[in-house]
Amino acid sequence: MIPVARPLLGEEEAAAARRAILSGWVTQGPEVEAFEHEWAAMTGAPHACAVSSCTTALHLALLALGVGRDDEVITVSHSFIATANAVRYCGALPVFVDIEPATFNIDPQLIEQAVTPRTKAILCVHQLGMPCDLAAILPVAKKHNLRVIEDAACAIGSEIQWQGEWQRIGRPHADIACFSLHPRKVITTGDGGMITTANTEWDATFRLLRQHGMSVSDKARHQSSKVIFESYPVVGFNYRMTDPQGAMGREQLKRLPGILERRREIAARYTASLSGVTPPHQPAWARSNWQSYCVRLPQGCDQAAFMQKMLEAGVSTRRGVMCSHREAACADLPPARPMPHSEQAQDTGVMLPLYPQMTDAEQDLVISSLHQALNA
Ligand SMILES: *Cc1c(COP(=O)(O)O)cnc(C)c1O
Question: Which pLDDT belongs to residue 116?
């Protein structure tokens, strides 16, 4: 069976986790700190703060921007449900807008009509690793004095053309960017997240809130030759990453350039070889990491039946990205605007297998199975 995704892990990650375990320091410590510095260098961000997941990263990002009860945050329904959930953790309301069908990303033209006096922020998503149109989103935010968070869960290593050069997602180009290190993403620490920003105060807030709101870090206490009593000025959380994860992440970062190169090769080969389906669109100013390769089935083709035929041919696939507004978890939100493009993307999208270890022979089987399933 050809899987949809498979993390690239080996002896190096196992040795790194072992090193952390045998050091005797297994919660957030020196490995996490080193991983943060390396992440900042990878993205070009002034600050990178490691946390337990992208979901907790988004929660802290929203809190640092002051998003609270009854505020509104403009975002997409067409995303993994964690995007909307993070807004709801703050007592705020996600206000969904539709996507551009070609890129699966928020339609910048629809943002302005969703702005109300209660709107505090825009939470845009680089869906499936394809950068969203920040150059169009940021001016709308500026006009209405809104903060912008990038849900970059899938976008590790993705790039946009910015001020005449290619830059990695996460500098960040908006106010804060949040990444996921779940195994379904491009590199992994099991679970894990990273928050980047250029704002020193927000970075300090992430560090305070991820560690129970504790005024003194355990590292500072550990290293001090004087007795220190900590205090708890705010209600915080336990959103820490552990040191074996941090050590593992550092090895994953070393693999990232090779992973990106191979993913881009496989995506290009799909685009060149597939017929009968619509391949994903990459704008000229964007370079995806191809966290997922999502094609559109032709009109009239039954999604479930197509996926079943692929499964019977030994090829695992997934349907298009979910729409949060269709889930019972969001049933108590005010009625959503019509979202034809989001719903159509969920119902006609199919994600094909793509992982760096994939062989050409495996990819050929996916391609021939797809053509057979379409013709059946
Ligand atoms: C995976 C994902 C998340 C959640 O990431 P976790 O690290 O699993 O919490 C959030 N947003 C998007 C767009 C995702 O794809």
Answer: 98
Q: How far is the centre of ligand 1, averaged over its atoms, from the C-alpha of 373 (Å)?
A: 30
Question: Which residues does a 6 A CB cutoff place in the pocket of ligand 1?
Answer: 53-55, 79-80, 82-83, 125, 151, 153-154, 180, 182, 193
Distance CA 198, CA 86 (A): 21
Q: What is the pLDDT of residue 376?
A: 83
pTM equals 0.98
User: Tokens 């969203």 correspond to what residue?
Assistant: 132
Ligand 1 centroid–CA 43 distance in Å is 18
Inside any domain, residue 235: yes
Residue 61's domain spans which residues?
Answer: 11-375
* Alpha-carbon torsion (60, 61, 67, 71), positive or negative: negative
What is the number of domains present in the chain? 1
| Whether the bond into 139 is cis, omega within 30 of 0 | no
| Ligand 1 atom index nearest CA of 185 | 1
How far does residue 24's CA lie from ligand 1's centre (Å)? 30
